[in-house]
Amino acid sequence: MSEQHTYRVIVRGTWEGLTEQARARLLAEAAEHGMASMRFSEEGSLSYEPVPLKHFSMRYVVVSDAADGEEMAGAIAEDRAETALREFGYGFAGLKSTVTDLDTMKINRKPASRR
């Protein structure tokens, strides 16, 4: 059995070819997808600014084999993002991911005297 790692992945992209209906829905739901909605989850969370309605990001938690590395975690998250965006009927382009391996991340703690 291989070792599993947990990754936090941010998938960024650009809205492209949005229909008027999709654009109207995004603008109507913008308050639900602002800064306060930014959470990492397996199903992903979408965030974007309504003005200008140009870029978006989706945050995912991906658990996969450590041997497959960050590249695979990024590919899994991008695939999830593509699937979700297509299901919503949103046009997009230029997906790129940033991956953090939570199992290898170093945490710098401040000494109690400096808090």
Structure write-up:
This protein has 115 residues and is an alpha+beta fold. It has helices at 20-28, 69-88; strands spanning 4-15, 45-48, 55-65, 92-101. A 4-stranded antiparallel sheet has the order 2-3-1-4, with helices on one face. The protein is globular, with a radius of gyration of 17 Å. The termini are far apart. The model has no long low-confidence stretch (mean pLDDT 91). This is DUF6204 family protein.
List keywords for this structure.
115 residues; alpha+beta; 2 helices
Summarize the structure.
With 115 residues, the chain is an alpha+beta fold.
Instruction: Give a count of the beta strands, DSSP E runs of length 2 or more.
Output: 4
Head-to-tail CA distance between termini: 42 Å
Total helical segments: 2
State mean pLDDT (0 to 100 scale): 91
Q: Radius of gyration over alpha carbons?
A: 17 Å
Helix content: 25-40%
Q: What overall geometry do the principal axes of the alpha carbons give?
A: globular
Regions with little confidence, pLDDT below 50 for 5+ residues: none
Protein name: DUF6204 family protein
Organism: Streptomyces pseudovenezuelae
InterPro entries: DUF6204
